[in-house]
Each structure stands twice: as structure tokens, then as C-alpha cells.
Amino acid sequence: MRYKEEAPIPNKRNLNPDGIELSLTGDRNQCRVCTEYFNSTHAFDKHRRNGKCLTRAEMTRRGMTMINGGYWVGAVMDSNALELRSRVRQAGEEEPLRSNA
Ligand SMILES: [Zn+2]
């Protein structure tokens, strides 16, 4: 199967299969070649190998994983840390961590 490497990215809203719009905020970026989204420049760099993009299967094999419905992160550990952080933040909003009991 031949892949058109220079195919332009359609200028329209990008929705993942769940209908969530993927936006490029902060350090997030999208690859022009494979059109995958990355949560950081580090993750983007990790999916490039010898001037080519890794496939999803190859990225997964290298320990990368997708979070938030469409953003690749460099390592499973990163996504765990991100999820943990958001969980802590959510918990912290409801009940303060400080306890004098
Ligand atoms: Zn790519």
C-alpha cells in the first residue's frame, strides 16, 4: 500500500471517532505526514524514525500511547502521570488535601 506523503491536511475541524475535537494547544502538534496528533514535541520526535513516521503499531511497540481520545504521548508512564495528575486535581477541588485530623 502506497501512502501519499505530501497530502495536505484538510482545513476543517478534526474530530476523533468519539466526536471530540482535537485542538493544538500548548506543546501539542500534528504531523503533516501521518496527520497523527501528539501531546508534546517529545512525542512527535519519537514517532519520526529516519525521516519516516512510525505506524500506530510501531509507536505502541515503542511504549507510546494515545491519551484523551487522540493525542500520542512518548511513554505509557507519561500518560499515567497525566491521568494521575488530573485525578489528583479533580479530587483536590472537592476536598482539600490538607488535613489536621
Ligand atoms: Zn507522522
Q: How would you describe this structure to a colleague?
A:
- The chain has a domain at 29-94.
- Helix content is 32%, strand content 14%.
- It has helices at residues 41-47, 56-61, 76-94; strands at residues 29-30, 37-38, 48-49, 52-53, 65-67, 71-73.
- It has a four-stranded mixed β-sheet with strand order 1-2-6-5. A two-stranded antiparallel sheet has the order 3-4.
- It starts with 28 loop residues before the first strand and ends in a 7-residue tail after the last helix.
- The chain binds zinc ion (ZN).
- Zinc ion binds at residues 31, 33-34, 36, 47, 53.
- Zinc ion is lined by residues 31, 33-34, 36, 47, 53.
Summary?
The protein has 101 residues and is an alpha+beta fold.
Average per-residue pLDDT, rounded, comes to 78
Query: Main β-sheet: number of strands, strand sense, barrel status?
Result: 4 strands, mixed
Contiguous runs where pLDDT drops below 50 for at least 5 residues: none
Rough outline: globular
Radius of gyration: 17 Å
Number of H/I helices = 3
Helix/strand-derived class?
alpha+beta
Bound molecules: zinc ion
Task: Give the helices and strands, then pairings.
Elements: E1 29-30, E2 37-38, H1 41-47, E3 48-49, E4 52-53, H2 56-61, E5 65-67, E6 71-73, H3 76-94
The structure holds zinc ion (ZN).
Write out key terms for the chains shown.
about 100 residues, alpha+beta, 4-stranded mixed beta sheet, two-stranded antiparallel sheet, 6 strands, about 30% helix, binds zinc ion
